[in-house]
Amino acid sequence: MESAGEYDYIIVGAGTSGCLLANRLTRNKNVNVLLIEACGKDDYLWIHIPVGYLHCIGNPRTDWLFKTEPDAGLGGRSLIYPRGKVLGGSSSINGMIYMRGQSGDYDRWAELTGDPSWAWDQVLPLFMKSEDHHGGASATHGSGGEWRVEKQRLSWQILDAFRDAADQVGIRKVDDFNGGDNAGCAYFEVNQKRGIRWNTAKAFLRPIAARSNLTIMTGCHVERLIIEQSEQGPACRGVEFTGGGKSWRADAKRETLLAAGSIGSPQILQLSGIGPAAALHSLGITPQADRPGVGENLQDHLQLRMIYKVNNAKTLNTSAAGWFGKMKIGIEYTLMQSGPMSMAPSQLGAFAKSDPSQPSANLQYHVQPLSLEKFGDPLHAFSAFTASVCNLRPTSRGHVRIASKDSYAAPKISPNYLSTPEDRKTAADALNLTRRIVAAPAMAKYAPEEFKPGVHFRTDEELAEAAGQIGTTIFHPVGTCKMGKKDDPMAVVDSELRVIGVAGLRVIDASVMPNITSGNTNSPTLMIAEKAAALISAARTE
Questions:
Q1: CB of 407 within 8 A of CB of 529?
Q2: pLDDT class for 328, splitting at 50, 70, 90?
Q3: Percent of the residues in the chain that have a pLDDT greater than 90, as a whole number
């Protein structure tokens, strides 16, 4: 086994969290950092063209190609489960939507962890620290940071009409989703720079790649963490990985920082003997630390994709029909970086209550001027739009569990969607609310006709069944290494993201969320990394 050297910190995963961590930690010239990434550089053209996510998801060059286990809540269907496998991680293939969630999300984290530093008023400055908002600095937005936030560079009359219709049923028009209360309807802001995707590799890693105290190793697959036992208990001393046809060992003098995401981090922990001891032992893995919560508590937003045929409306289905339409779209993007090729997967958003008894908005809409049967399929031949709606605070919980001690074998991912009565009721209410919006006067001129799931689904029971037929992931898995109080047997990390019972090891990514945020999860993950970097720096000086 080759030695990759000794470093103060080893970061496993150059995704959303890993890129920011590398940036922040190497500001101290007396600290040396190794950043390990399983795949390669973000030099694939389609990463940078916003609509290129269509070519990145399902592509082994940029995607881990995970799939879920057959899910009873979805009628036994298995879903693709994209996760970024490239510098920038999932920020290189995601929907680019800039969203923080609601203030209550973080106040709840503070309650669950017993640490008030996770409350909204404490984390808001962390969001702002890295932000470069198109509107400049304000009480809620930052300017001059690395994380560019812009308005989208196009609009659609059919989406404007949906926004008007939402307002007519009580979902007010707003300008900003990110002040702590995201209730309302608006076009999403996006992580783009002049119509080009702005991923975390561009924002945080590329400007510092030449720092002498940073070593980046790409094309390297982490096999396991090196765990040593002592009288004080288990401690992480580094990592073993393969790359370039060789086996490597890298040693960490201070800490190993696991930033491999909500699927990769629990997988690596389990492969290293950190997880439910009995299950690991049955796979021939020697347990190093019995943490039954590793891989549990999986949460995700299930989007229910309602499709409506429309008349007298321009949609992408018709705009992109034929070679002339495609050529026109290509020329517009080439010349001005605008038009459909600059589109985020979803353009218009709305946050609403599924019923009046909800304390805050618990539904999120992603509305698109297009339709297709499923991801990867061609657009429909008729003019249509899609109104996807998801339950922001699902009560269903799934898990991620390794199936063998082979580090190259994909883990078993079981989201368990719609597995609680509460989630099934919210799904039915969400579909009914969508119908109310589409039936509002502002939409009448387009004569919308429900194509999916179909008007024959009427009762709550029938609508819950329909939700299982049209539901699919919106790519927000979190929670599989949740943080919590040390006396919580299912907590994996404490409020400073240190793995409970294992010295020298932290998990820093979306897997630590105890509860999923009320919206898209990429920028909250970035905030977690920003907070972790400050915690690590403070610990170094103690």
A1: no
A2: low
A3: 87
